[in-house]
Amino acid sequence: MNKFFPNKTALYALLSSCFVVCATMGVRQTFGLYSSEFEISGGASNTEFGLAVAVHAIFWGIFTPIFGRLSDKLGGYVVIIPALIFYSISMFLMGNNFISGIWLQVNLGLFVGIGLAGAAGTILTPMVSKHFPNENRSKAAGIVTACGGLGMFIFPILASIFKNISSWQMSFILFSIILILMVIPGFFVKLPETQISTTNSNIDQRSLKDVLKESFAHKGFRLLVLGFFVCGFQITLIATHVPRYVQDIGLADWTGMAILALIGFFNIIGTLIMGYLGDKYSKKILLSGLYFLRGITLILFIFLPASNLSAVLFGTSFGLLWLATVPATNGIVAQIFGTKNLTLLFGIVFLNHQFGSFLGAYLGGYFYDKFGSFDYAWYLAIVLSFIATALHLPIDERPIQKSQATT
Asked: Disulfide check for 327: which of 142, 143, 207, 354 has CB 3.0–4.6 Å away?
């Protein structure tokens, strides 16, 4: 059995990415906890707050394939370092009350979007995957994604502590400091020492135009793109609006923080399990089952009587399913097309994820301001779960040259 780490570069890339992703994804997980503060201090409505999160989702999606292309050629640190600087600046400005009107859209929208595009798990996961052969790739992706879950568990708790002992503004100042410190590990995310060999290495030698043409001509790739839209809609709807939702249905104030923290903690377990299973079983079947379980979990949470216990159970169960989509989705792209352009291609898949995120964040706020509840957003999230379940089943996971040889 080959050792897990092919070389020291792979080890440094994985460990460094874990630190960076823990911080970037952790900070993002706290934003929904501040919607009331933004409304009181900056006069931002739920629609405006949701729009700002939607804007950063779109910029996150747009810049991810661009940054992915740069990192595929030059190394991850080239995009990670400037992204962390933008992310840190946005936190510092919001901590100094730049949260009204256009400032909210620039800071929580544009700057956070650029920061996540270059330094979140969605780009660091494929960066790290490039260092590992196919038999270990899903496990490596699962480890990085799980560290994002660790941040998502820790940072909502930190946010609550910071708010209680000081102020919500101080939370953002401290987040700014943490993010700028992540530049240090970010420097160690570099290209592999040697390209990992794959069964479809001829695809890797093609031009960017040919790679994109080949990928979009592949039915499975198109279905994967459509399915990931659902993931974005659901997780951004929940992360942005569930704290306000649980308050409105009469649950204790701590339940919003608890749901987000539990999602983060159990996301660690879910992504590690999916990473392990993804190296042994069909990734498309795992994804179909995951989206089906998401639909069932949402139905139980929305339609059963509201209680603090149901909130805790929802955070636990949905956490297991939260970012567990990433190792399998990333793994299918690598399995079909190879790894040389993996960060770019996964970035394209992720762009459609962010269109879903935009609608999840924006429609949640819009429905709330227009109808006085989030119900229609939840109903849409449930329907999308079962659509995604069906979308993944026809995907052909075979390396592309093998599938072409048999057609």
From this structure: 142
